[in-house]
Design goal:
Elongation Factor Tu (Ef-tu), domain 3; single chain; 13% helix; 4 helices
C-alpha cells in the first residue's frame, strides 16, 4: 500500500528487454534507500514494482507484459522522470489516500493552464473509469494523490499548488502527456458491494446500471 505522497523524482536509467519482460533500472534521486530490502515495493509513476536489486542510488525491477500493456510503461524511455514512493509503513502518516499501486488505466492530459501561482489541469480518463470520478474525490495520477475539483463525463480537472509541481513530475505535463490513473479503491469495493449476489455473475451480466440501481432502491 502507498499514500500517493511522492518522496522523490527519479530517472529511468535503463530499460533492458528480457524476453517479454523489461528489466527496469531507476536512479532514485533524493529518496533514502537505507530501509529498503530485496522484495520491497516501490511505486514508480503509481505502478507497484518489486525491488530485485538496489543500492543507495538506484533500484531494479522486472516489469511484466501485463504491466507494460496496462500502464504508461509502453511509452517510457531512458532518461524519463518518474515519481517514486516507498510502501507505506504501519506507523506512518496517511497523508494522501489509500493507493494500491495497481493502475486502472492510462489517461491523457488535455490542457495545462497557469492561474496565478497554481495551475489547472484537465485530464481525459478512459470511459470505463468515468463512474469512479467524483467531485472532491481522490484520484492517483502517476502515483500522486490528488483531489478532483471538477468532473465532465470522463474528463476531470485538478488544481496543483507550487509545492506539488516542484516535488513531482506534474510540472512537466503538457497537452498529450499520457498518465497512469488509479481510482479510489473504496469506490471499487463499494461498486461490488452494491451488486450483492449479482457480483457472482459473469462480468457482462453483472454490470452496474441505472436500471439496477433503481430496481434495488438506490434511486428515487
Amino acid at each position: 500500500m502507498f499514500t500517493g505522497i511522492i518522496e522523490s523524482i527519479g530517472t529511468i536509467a535503463k530499460l533492458q528487454p528480457a524476453g517479454d519482460d523489461i528489466r527496469l533500472t531507476v536512479n532514485v534521486g533524493k529518496m533514502d534507500m537505507g530501509d529498503v530490502a530485496l522484495g520491497d515495493s516501490i511505486a514508480t509513476n503509481g505502478v507497484c514494482l518489486t525491488v530485485v536489486e538496489f543500492s543507495d542510488s538506484y533500484f531494479c525491477a522486472d516489469v511484466s507484459p501485463e504491466t507494460i500493456q496496462r500502464t504508461g510503461f509502453a511509452h517510457y524511455q531512458q532518461g524519463a522522470s518518474v515519481n517514486l514512493e516507498k510502501a507505506l509503513q504501519a506507523n506512518a502518516r496517511l497523508g494522501g489516500h489509500i493507493v494500491s499501486g495497481h493502475v486502472d488505466g492510462v489517461g491523457e492530459i488535455l490542457s495545462v493552464t497557469p492561474v496565478n501561482r497554481y495551475i489547472e489541469i484537465w485530464v481525459k480518463a478512459p470511459d470505463e473509469l468515468a463512474r469512479y470520478l467524483a467531485e472532491k474525490g481522490s484520484i492517483t495520477v502517476d502515483g500522486t494523490s490528488l483531489t478532483v475539483n471538477q468532473v465532465d463525463g470522463a474528463k476531470f480537472m485538478l488544481t496543483l499548488i507550487p509545492h506539488t509541481l516542484q516535488e513531482t513530475i506534474i510540472g512537466n505535463y503538457k497537452a498529450g502527456t499520457k498518465v497512469n490513473l488509479e481510482v479510489d479503491v473504496i469506490a471499487r469495493y463499494l461498486e461490488r458491494l452494491i451488486l450483492g449476489d449479482k457480483a457472482a455473475e459473469s462480468s457482462q451480466e453483472s454490470k452496474l446500471s441505472m436500471a439496477f440501481l433503481a430496481e434495488h432502491g438506490y434511486l428515487r
